[in-house]
């Protein structure tokens, strides 16, 4: 493992009364990072927020790190270069199966489930001045921004567009950068896969008129048949532009932890996030789904023993022993 250890001298004397009992921290890391994604996306805002919350509550130095998103986060957490990270279930499954493009053939089985985050809706945004109000309106050869290379959006949205018969030029970049390119006329469309509200979309709404484009029922059905997603509605009050809920599809996100992190550390970090949802919602509204009962949305990753114990003790989670790392 590459996470930093406290010096033996300091660690021997440290205990904390976290969760109402004396907690030995001697094997805890002195600092940690949370792999997020690009600035302007939900992962960065959400991940930096919970990293800071855990650091403050547990008295450990920690923070969010800008990354390429779920695929890179799986790799960073697997190797221990990041203690924690965030991923969607699709990239998690591909990483476990050895098809992560960062390290083809490597089964990234040292990244364990920590806690449920929220669903990532897939949505399309264009400037109102473009006249694009539906997927069918996207012109042949349109320049579409799909987010950072290797992100959930970049992994799945191009395939979804191809499934829907859209021909396009693929562009990559951070969400804030792509938002600027859309506003400057360098892109025709941005295909977002991020928790809502997406900061970059909210910023665009302040600066210009945009169309947030929903899928038709037929388009939604075609995508759900071809990809590991479920139906989703973006609530009308998510953006000022929306006058009614927007039909979409979504994929669940989970926080992940390196499987070799100390059980007590991951238990307490999970407790900080899951025990007070109001604090998480203050960080980002997508955290309304960061609640204990959504533990069952993970059917892909092995659970970290510390996280599994928290959900078993506090949410009545019936996690099979063979789904707990080392169990």
Automatic annotation (TrEMBL):
Protein name: C4-dicarboxylate ABC transporter substrate-binding protein
Signal peptide, first to last residue: 1-22
Gene3D superfamilies in the record: Periplasmic binding protein-like II
Entry keywords, A to Z: Signal
PANTHER family hit by this protein: SLL1037 PROTEIN
UniProt superkingdom: Bacteria
Source organism phylogeny: Bacteria, Pseudomonadati, Pseudomonadota, Alphaproteobacteria, Rhodobacterales
Membrane-crossing residue ranges in chain numbering: none
